[in-house]
Every structure is written in C-alpha cells, then in structure tokens.
Structures
1.
Amino acid sequence: MNIREDEDIKIAPKTFKPNRPPLDSGEEAARQFLEQKELGNIEKARELGASFAQAVINLEDGPVAERGKKRTQRELHNQIVLYSYIVNRVIADHSPNSIVAQSCLGVFYKTVEAASAELFSHISDMAAFSLYVLCERSKNRTDDEIGVIYAELCDFDGREEIIAEGNAFYRRIYAYCAEKIGGVEFK
C-alpha cells in the first residue's frame, strides 16, 4: 500500500457530529411540542383551556356571570362571541409560545363543542368574531370601540348604556382570563 493513497482520508475530530439535514417545519414543530410536553406546559395549557370553556358553559351562573342581568338571546349570543374573542386574545397575549396557545385553544373549543352544539355555534360565529379582530388590528383602536361593536351586533347601535355594558364586559372578562392564565406557571 502506498502512503500517498491515504492522503485523501480525513480523520474525524473527537467531537465529530455527522451532518444532518435541517429539520423540516413539521419535524421542528413536533420537536417543540414534545419539549413543551416534557416541561408540563401542554397539560397546563389543556387544563386552562378546559377552565375557560367551563366559564362560558356556565355563563349564566359561573365565574363570569352577570347576576340578575336580563339579556335578550341576541345579547347573550354576542356576549358568548365576545367571550370567545377575549379568550383568544388573552391566550395570544399571555402564552409563552404558540404551541401552548394552540393547545389551550384546542381544548377550549373541543370542550365547548362536547358540552353543547348550540353554544359551540355561538363561539364559532366568525362574522361577529371578525369584527372584533378588525377592531383589534385597527390603527385607531381603543378598548372602548369593543363596546360600539357589541352594541351594533346586539342591534342597539349608538345606545350608550349598551356600549358601556359591552366595554365593561370586555374589561371584566379580559381581567378574569388574564388572571387565570397569569396564575399558571409555565416553564
């Protein structure tokens, strides 16, 4: 054997790592999900999603109920839509990452759907929901505009007491949901 024949052979260093192709987006998402699961964040997110669902399922007498308040079916429907929007917004604003957020929202929607097809149709009213999203993305947005949209959806355009009621509901439910998610110790 000629020594010159071995010149093209390279010796791997002690810290040799084989070249691996980069993970595709699906593999990366699966890796991140497993990481969040190992940290216990997925289970916490699922519990939080179920808790948010129970609050809307028990809207008449649960932790977010307005005791003694008479509402029309249209008002109740729009409070449920607004509640759903707020849950989505709080989760987006306060979740440590999108995997935790999606886990929480997935359980929220599945729990509501399992409890009541009618209630699920309320929280799935994308036309009304979209108005709140558009308001959120508006450059001139103020939280008081939520009440204006709420009043319009309830067919009480411009009625100050309904606008104030919508704004108060928004602030109260946002604070409730933010407190709930703030009490979860994500890692």
2.
Amino acid sequence: MKRIIWVLLAILPLCLHAQYVVKHDVNEQFEYMTDYQWNKWNRGFVLNGEFIKNPIGINLNKVEKVHKALPFTIKNVGAAKDSILVPKGWWEKYENKCLPVKGFNCHDITLYVSKEYPEYVELYSLDEIRKLFCPKVKGKVVYMINKFFIMDNEELYRLDPTFVYRVETVKSKDIKVLSDQPEFTLVRIFTWTTHNVFPDKLGY
C-alpha cells in the first residue's frame, strides 16, 4: 500500500504538467515577461520576409521557423515600409553586435514562414489595426497587445488582422489619475489566445 502511495505521489506532478501542456497555448509563451522585459527584448522577428518586431500579433500555430543564409533582405520595415539588408557578419559590423532597425537594436533575428499560402498573409501596422477596428479614434494613442503596453518602436510592429480577437478603447479622462492630463486614447488589442477567448475553460 505504501508503495502504491509513493508511486502516485511520484507521478502526480507529471500528470499536472501534462495537463498544463495540453491546455497551454503556444501564443501565450511570452506572458511570463514583464512590460519592461517584453519591450526591451532585443530579438527581432520576420514573417515571410516582413519585419514584424515581435510574434505576439501572429498565430504561431500557423508558422514555422526557418534558417536562411546571409545576406538577406527584410521588408515592410517601419512607417515608410522600407527594406533593410542583413549582411554577412552583421554582428561584427555594427556597434554592440546589434543590427539597427529603425531605432531598434536587434541582437538576433528569428525567421518564420507561413505553413500555408504565405502570399495571402497580409500584415497590418498598429495604426492600420486602429483604423480598421476603431476608425473614430483620433489624436494621441497608447497601444497595448494583450497584457503588454507598447512603450516604443510602435511603428515596427506588424499583426495579422485575422488573429485579432477584439479591440477595446479607453479614454485617458476615464482614468482618475490621468483625468487632468492632456487626453489620449488607450487602444488595447486582444488576440485569439486561449486566455482571451476561452477564460472559462481555464477557471477564470
């Protein structure tokens, strides 16, 4: 009997971990980060050749990592949608071993491609998402994606609009501590993650 109890105690953590793995959404893998960690993360991401800054705005279940020989070009960078050449040995060429991408110092680059029909994946900037989902919002805007504030480099982010679950807007005047300050709008973008869409399944 004691042996059975010990066996049960030994496998219980494994069962709990397996349950977590089954429920865990790969699109929530970075939620352990704080706002500062997430914003100061110096890894850049590219989808189908387009610079997206961070993978929070794409469905990671529908992409796969690839390796590409240097040099290669990344496109649709920033507000001007420029192209940037990533040369051979770029980590030796630039200061602090970082590739300068429109004010963002990129220490490493992860390349993704869509598993199906990459030519049909259209990526939107944060401003384009705002215009699509809340076109009446004007003036100064602070963006959030899920739990994270966008503190800088907002023009570098690209999102798949079909992966946006909903968008909420909050006026700064409705926040007591900000009510006497110059007005702006908080635009909070929620993506199709388990936490956002099925909170009841996770006991929230």
3.
Amino acid sequence: MSHPIIGLPLLTSNPIGWAVLGVAGYLTYQAGKKAGKNSVEQVDKECLADRAVKGAMKSVYKAKLKTDAMLNSSKEKYGEMWKEAQAEASQQA
C-alpha cells in the first residue's frame, strides 16, 4: 500500500486530478455547511423534555377549560331544578 502523499502529484498534475480535488473540496464544504446549519438549529430548539412538559400543560389546561364549561352548564341546569323543587315544596307545605 502506497503512502497518500505519493498519489498527490497524480491528482495535481492533470485535469482529471483537479476535477477530483474540486469535487472532494466541494463535498467537504457542503458537509461542513450542513453541519453548521444543524448545530445552529439545535441551539435554537427547545429541549425535548421542555417541549413535552409544555405539551402536557397545554393538554391539562384545555381539559380544565372543557370541564369548567361542562360544570357551569350542569350547575345552571340543576340550579334551576333545585329552585323549582324548593318552590314546589314550599307551596305544598
């Protein structure tokens, strides 16, 4: 197996070698660009645990709102029935 430095003159001495080096450099550039972009996106994102807790809090809050609305409607419905029952009982007594 030959040392990589021995193959360097073959790459730099002809046009195909220049094309190979150019493509390799471009691919390296693109990989670095993508890695840098991903690292910036990772800094901007919230932690997975924080997002999970926030989602759970939203779900609980929505359930609370629905429960409160349901209890209020039940309170109004049965409150009227209670008042009617009291009025009928007081008329009979």
4.
Amino acid sequence: MSSIIVYTTTAELDQLCIPSAIYAETLAHNTNAIISYFESNPQVMLQFSGFNSALKQANQLNYDRKCGCFYTIPWNTQYNVVNSVPKTILNFSQQVELYQYMIANWNGNPPTSYMRYLSVIALGILLNIKRAKYNIDNGLCVCKSPLTTITFQNNYQFILYLKENNIKL
C-alpha cells in the first residue's frame, strides 16, 4: 500500500523525501559520502533528475492554473522507513509546495532545502558524466575520471560503467 506523505511544515516534507540510505549523511551535509552513494547507485542519481523535472512541471501547471497528477517517489524515502510503507506519494499541491521550498532555500540561507542539496550533487555528477561521454564520442582525451569515487583505467571501462548501469545521456 502506498501512502501520501503527512507532514506539518514544508521543511519536514523536505526531510521526509530524503533517501533513507543517505538520510544521516544528508542532514550532516557529508557531500563526499553522498557522492560515493550516487556513484555506486546511479539509478537513484538518475531518478533525482526525473524528480526535479516532475516538480518543475507541477509548478508550471500550477502557474497555468491547471491540475497535475500524483508523483510516486521512486527511491526508499525516510518516510517509508518511519511509517513502514512501501511507496511514498506526493500529491499535486505537495509537489508545488516542495518545489517552491527548494527554490526559496537553495543557496545556503537557513533553512537549506535538503532535497535541493541532493539534487545539485546528483545533477552535477550527471553533468560530469555527460561531458566525459561527449569527449569520448568525439575522440577527445578524458584525462581525469568523471566520477570522484570510481576510477577508470581507460575510456572503455567508463563506457562499460554507463552500459552496465543503463545510463543514457
């Protein structure tokens, strides 16, 4: 059974959406541990891209005075762990509220949005991967590994990493 998140403040909603596997690291702003997690779990990293797109689209629909759909968060959230539910769902108004909170609290002003913090890290890693793939596709040297915690001996190993993890950019 899925569950729509029940919360009292938007800051609480922001915390409840954090992946449970990196909850403590996120609250402590342990960027290196989060990067390591995303690089070893690239599907979660890719899901953050879709998450941001869904929230942005919900905000645009709200601006256009239209209604949107529910969004099922694809990773195991802290809300799942605390409430023992298999899936977490954000309704349309929660998506809009969370997106606006993330935008308003993205630049380090207290309180910082944890979901925005995670999204910036995930999207930064994806940008590095995309840049490295572009360089390889165009015969340019990738002198430094595009990932922080995983080292590739050559371009072929990097391409295998992309294929094994179904990363298509």
